[in-house]
Structure formats: C-alpha cells, structure tokens
Amino acid sequence: MVEAKILNLAITDKGFAVILKPIKLEKVVPISIAYLEAQSIMSSLIGYKIERPLTHDIVNSIFQNCGIRLINVIIDNVHIDTFFSKLVIEHNGKNIFIDSRPSDAIALSLKSKAPIFIEEHVIEKAGIILENSEGLMKVKDSIPFTYQRFDREDIKENNEESLIIQNDNSVNEDNLDKDIPKDNNKKNKEELQKLLDQAVKEERYEDAARYRDELDNLK
C-alpha cells in the first residue's frame, strides 16, 4: 500500500472528481464522486464549517461519541471505472474493516484526519500522469476528460487580476491594497462571508474556494 494525499477536487465533463496523489509517485488517481460527497470534501479542504451537519459530519460525531477511531482508509480495488475501498476502524481493541464507497471514505478521512492508502495494483491500473498547461491539468495518457485546477495559488492570482480590472486597469499589485480603504474591510468581510455561504449551499465549489481566499487576504 502507498499513502496518498488529496491533490485537488476537480470538475470534469463527467462531474466532480477527487484527485489522489500517491506519495513519491508521479502518477495520480482520479476518482469520480457525486455532488454531496464533493460538498463534504470541499468544505473540509477549505476549512469551512457548514451550519447544519452533513452525513459525514454525523458519522464522524458517532465515531467520536462511541469510542470508535478511524485508523485509515484503503482504496483496495478498481473494476473498469468503479473503485472500491474500506474503512479500517478500531473499536473495543479490535480492528474492523468496513466496505465503503471511496467518496464516503475520503470524506470521512478528512473529518477524522485519518490517512488514505491505495493498493499498488490500483495505482498501476488506474493511475495517470498529469502535466500543467495554461491553468489546466492535462493528461499525458489517454483519458476522456481534462481537469480544472483548484489550487489556491491559481485562485489567488485570478482574484488579484479581477480586483485590478474592477478598480483600474493601470493599478498594479503593489498599489492594490492602497486603493482599498481600510474602513471597508469589515463590510467586505461580511459580504464575502455571505457569498461564501451561498456558494457552498449552491454547490459552487470553485466560487467558494475563491471567496475563502479573498477572506484570507483581507485577514
């Protein structure tokens, strides 16, 4: 088994996909996920706490209140484009393996801060190599879709460009902070928080990530 980290949550022409990056390997493993799981994963990635608990929040609360510890998550098989996984939990001194959809398993791993592992044969069969080009993650090997990057640096750059255009085309990044009155910071934070809340509710995750970065910049 190889430990993996979440590289990105991406939008493809097939919907949402979570991109897992096995540590010290060049390949990544893309796994298609549904909207609700994408919402749960995205809220954890950007550190946003939803007012009403989602399913994975409830399961995590059950774990915590019933003396159950999520040890790790294992992506252990793939058939065509369907992945299989297991939750490894500890309860009453015993390790228990529970079948789970990878999307649920990954969401729970983020809630519990448990590591994710992928079996080597899954990486060999489903792993792909990505290359960066013009803000997109494009695939070297054949695959029927292209990934849109969600990394925070790109969001920050796009943010700054939008602010510059809205204020003055001649304004550069060095003067950007000077052109925004400090008295408006509180108002801006409140407006951005409302936009962030609305984006999460409407499952517009890219917008949510952008608003979160704007809030961070103001802070």
Question: Can you describe this structure?
Answer:
- There is one protein chain.
- By secondary structure, the chain is an alpha+beta fold.
- Helix content is 42%, strand content 30%.
- The chain has helices at residues 35-45, 55-65, 102-112, 120-126, 152-167, 173-176, 185-201, 205-218, and strands at 2-12, 15-22, 29-33, 69-79, 82-91, 94-100, 116-118, 130-133, 136-139, 147-148.
- The strands form two sheets. It has a seven-stranded mixed sheet with strand order 3-2-1-7-4-5-6. Strands 8-9-10 form a three-stranded antiparallel sheet, with no helix packed on it.
- The radius of gyration is 20 Å and the shape is globular.
Secondary-structure map with pairings?
Blueprint: E1 2-12, E2 15-22, E3 29-33, H1 35-45, H2 55-65, E4 69-79, E5 82-91, E6 94-100, H3 102-112, E7 116-118, H4 120-126, E8 130-133, E9 136-139, E10 147-148, H5 152-167, H6 173-176, H7 185-201, H8 205-218
Parallel strand pairs: 4-7
Antiparallel strand pairs: 1-2, 1-7, 2-3, 4-5, 5-6, 8-9, 9-10
Helix pairs in contact: 1-3, 2-3, 5-8, 7-8
